[in-house]
Amino acid sequence: MSFLRFAARRLAEMVATLLGASFVIFGALYLAPGNPASFLLSGRSATPEAVKAIDDQYHLNDPFVVQYLRWLGNVLHGDFGRSIEYRTSVSSLLAARLPSTLLLVAMALLLVLGIGLALGWISSVRGGATDSTVLVATAFAVGTPSFVAAVLLQGLFSVKLHWFPSSGSGTGFVQMLWHLTLPAVALALYLIGMLARVTRSAMLEAMGHEHVTVARSRGVPENRVIRRHVFRNSLGTVLTMGGLIVSTLLICTVLVESAFSVNGIGQLLDLSTTTKDFPVVQAISLIIVGLFMTVNLVVDLLYPLVDPRVALGARGSAG
Question: Which stretches are transmembrane (predicted)?
Fold first, then answer.
C-alpha cells in the first residue's frame, strides 16, 4: 500500500470517527440533569413567556436531530454558537484562552520528551546505581497525580521560595513562560516517569538483539551502537505512546489550569461543565477529541518511517 493511499484512508477514518464523536459529544450533555434555562434565570422565577423566549433563542425545544444538524453545520463554518454564561461567541472565548493552553501543553510536552527520553537512555546504558536511582525517581513521578504535584510545587516554589507566581497566565510571551513553568512541570511529571520507564525497557530489549551483538563484535564504537542500533530501534515503542502522552496532557490540563488559575480552555471547560454552558463544553470537547485523533494520525504516519519493518497496511489496521 502506497504512503499516500494509506494516509488518505487513515484521514477518512479519522473524519468518520470525529463525526461520530461529535454526535456523542452533542448528545451526552442532554442526558445530564438540569437545563440551561435554569442557569440563565439564575434561580429566579420566570413567567412561561420568559422561559419560552429563552428556549426559542437557544433552540432548546427543537427536536434533537434538528439541533445536532444545525450545530454541526455551524461548527463546519467555524461557528461554535454563543456561550450561555458569558453571553458572547464561543469562538471568541476560545481564541482568547487557547494560546495559554497550547503553550502550556507544548512546554509540558518538551519536558516529557527531553527529560523522559534522557532518563530512559541513561538508565539503560549506565545501569548499576544510576539505573536504581532513575527507577526510584520515576516511580515517585508516576505515583504523583498532576493535581498533587500542582499543590506541592505551589507550596514550595511559589509560597515558600517565591520563585514563580502561584496563579495566572501572564501577559506577553516571556511572562507567559514564567507563569506557566510550574503548571508545565506539574503536568509533565507523571508522563516523564512513564516515558523514562518505557524507553529504558525498550532499549534494554533492543540491546539483546542479534544485530547489536554483531555491531559490537565488529568494533563499532559503543556510542554509535547505542545511537543507531539501540535507541533508533526503540523509537517505535516510544512513538506508540504519542497518543497516550498527548491525551493525558489534554485531560490533565483541566486539573492543572484550575489549580494554578491559568486562563486556558481547561479551566474554561471546568467552569462551563459546572454551569452547564452547553455550547462551550461541546466546542472544547470536540477540539480535544480532534487534537487527540490528529496526533494518532501523525503517529500512524510516522511509525513506518521509524520502523520500516512495519507495513503501512498492518500498522493502519492495528491503529
Answer: 12-32, 102-122, 134-157, 177-198, 234-260, 280-303
Residue 272's alpha-carbon distances to 100, 117, 267, in angstroms, are 17, 36, 9
Helices (H), 29-145: 36-40, 48-57, 64-76, 90-126, 128-142
The domains of the chain, with CATH numbers, are 97-276 (1.10.3720.10)
How many residues in total does the chain contain?
Answer: 319
DSSP 86-111: T-SBHHHHHHHHHHHHHHHHHHHHHH
Beta bridge partners of 89: 82
pTM for the structure as a whole:
0.80
- In this structure, the number of other CB atoms found within 10 A of the CB of residue 130 comes to 14
Contacts of 295 (CB under 8 A, 6+ apart): 242, 243, 246, 247
CA atoms of 69 and 186, how far apart (whole Å): 39
Q: Which amino acid is at 187?
A: L
Q: Quick one: which of 161, 242, 131 has its CA closest to 195?
A: 242
pLDDT digits (tens, 9 = 90+) for 116-129: 999 998 998 888 89
Q: In the numeric block, which cell numbers belong to residue 92?
A: 471568541
Q: Summarize pLDDT for 205-246 with one digit per residue, the tens.
A: 888 777 778 877 887 788 888 887 788 778 777 787 777 888
Give CA torsion, residues 302, 319, 282, 176, to 10 deg: -30
Listed in sequence order, the residues at least 6 apart from 273 whose beta carbon sits closer than 8 Å to its beta carbon are 281
| Strand ranges in the chain using DSSP code E only, listed in sequence order | none
142: left (phi over 0), alpha (psi -120 to 50) or beta: alpha
Opening angle at CA 226, ends 221 and 228, nearest 5: 90
